[in-house]
């Protein structure tokens, strides 16, 4: 799922909590969700973890995830 759709489907309070659990600020998470900033690899992992996999690293880095996470390049989609 696209981070923007996931993030803005939450209540404002939930967005702030989500950003905090991901280790970032609400403002930075908003910038990432809108595509103004690319998430760091650490933030992408946190987003995937805190969204229970709904926003995957593959979705956030469709062209470069194999270089960032080689273990994902060998996993089958949806596995």
Structure report:
This protein has 79 residues and is mainly α. 61% of the residues lie in helices and 0% in strands. The chain has helices spanning 3-8, 12-21, 26-34, 41-50, 57-60, 65-68, 70-74. The radius of gyration is 12 Å and the shape is elongated.
What's the layout of helices and strands?
Elements: H1 3-8, H2 12-21, H3 26-34, H4 41-50, H5 57-60, H6 65-68, H7 70-74
Order of helices and strands: HHHHHHH
Summed up, the helix count is 7
Count of DSSP E strands?
Answer: 0
Instruction: Give the overall pLDDT as a whole number.
Output: 91
Helix content: 55-70%
Strand content: under 5%
Q: Can you tag this structure with a few keywords?
A:
mainly alpha
Short summary:
This protein is mainly α.
């Amino acid at each position: 799922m696209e981070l923007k759709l996931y993030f803005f489907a939450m209540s404002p309070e939930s967005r702030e909590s989500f950003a905090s659990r991901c280790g970032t600020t609400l403002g930075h998470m908003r910038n990432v969700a809108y595509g103004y900033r690319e998430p760091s690899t650490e933030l992408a992992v946190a987003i995937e973890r805190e969204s229970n996999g709904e926003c995957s690293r593959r979705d956030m880095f469709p062209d470069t995830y194999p270089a960032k996470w080689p273990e994902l390049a060998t996993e089958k989609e949806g596995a």
